Structure formats: structure tokens, C-alpha cells
Amino acid sequence: MNFSRTILDGIVMCVVFNSLVGLFFFVVPQAYAMMFPKGIKEAAKPYVTRKELRVMHFVLYPLYLLMFIYMAVSAHCAGVTGFRSFFWTGYIEMMFVNVGDFFLLDVLARMYVMDKGLIKGAEGHPDWKWSGWWKLAVPEHGLAWPLIFCPLTGLSVAGFGALCEL
């Protein structure tokens, strides 16, 4: 495993992922409300259109797929071989994305969005406060990502890495 390459790729993917998600949040903020705490999600639901949701899915799903492929190809080019090495490379790089998502989007962007009223129907909702926000952000980024999403990413990267080795 190439630790320096893994760390640098993790930082780059963290910046790219969070920049793209943040950018598209400002393009279609209403669709991204479906990723917010339950109270905000319910308050904004009547204002979310199918078109906005399609745009969000059109951005996120290909972005994840391209990230997985990039992780595997980059690791392969760095000389990584074997299932275990590819798995941990993907896991560690996705943890960088996770930590960046938490601090950049869930903490800093929340403070900006809360005051701007970008989400119709959720202006002034109590879940914008830290107490409501932490009920979603901490379990998601502290448990769900490290225990579910990052291992799935590691498996995906290991699968793509196996294809690279053929």
C-alpha cells in the first residue's frame, strides 16, 4: 500500500467531492434538503420537484462511480496490488471524503445556509440549530460512513482494482 499516494488522493477527492456537492447545492438547494435532518426534510418536501431530485441523483451517482474508478486506477498506477491493499486504499480515501463532508458541508455550509433561507419551507426550522443537526450528522459520519459506506467503497475499489490487474 502506498500511504503517501493514498493520503494525497484522499485529500484531492475530499476537495473535489465537497466542491461539486457544494456547488450543486447552490444550483438546486431544494433537492439537497432531502439529505437534511427529518424536520427540515418534511418541511421542504412539498417544494421539492422530481426534476430537482433527478439533477441531484445525476450529480451524486456518477460522482461516486467515478471516484471509485479513480481510486482503483490511481492505486494500481501507484503499484498497489492485492485485494487487502486495494480495500484499505479505498476505505482510507473515502474516510477523507467523510471527514471533509462532515466539516465542510455539515458544519460550515450549515451555518451559511441556515441564515440565507435557501430551503423553501424550512426557514427558521428548529432543526437548523446544532441540537437537531447533530442528531443526523454525528451518527451518519461517525457510524454509518465508517461501518457501512467506507467498507462498501473499499470492496468496490478492490473489485475495480482486480479488473485493473487483469
Return residue spans where pLDDT drops below 50 for at least 5 consecutive residues: none
Helix proportion of residues, in percent? Answer: over 70%
Largest sheet: none
User: What proportion of the residues form beta strands (DSSP E)?
Assistant: under 5%
Shape summary: elongated
Task: Give the rounded overall mean pLDDT.
Answer: 89
Q: Count of helical segments?
A: 6
Would you count the extended β strands for me?
0
Derived from helix and strand composition plus strand pairing, the structural class reads mainly alpha
- What is the rounded Rg? 17 Å
Distance between the termini: 19 Å
- Name the helix and strand elements from N-terminus to C-terminus, one letter apiece: HHHHHH
How does this structure look, described?
The protein has 166 residues and is an all-alpha fold. It is 81% helix and 0% strand. The chain contains 6 helices and no strands. It has helices spanning 3-27, 29-32, 38-44, 50-77, 83-116, 130-165. Helix 1 packs antiparallel against helix 4, helix 4 crosses helix 6 (130-165) and helix 5 (83-116) runs antiparallel to helix 6. The longest helix is centred in the last third of the chain and has 36 residues, at 130-165. It is elongated and about 50 Å long. The two termini are 19 Å apart. The relative contact order is 0.18. The model has no long low-confidence stretch (mean pLDDT 89).
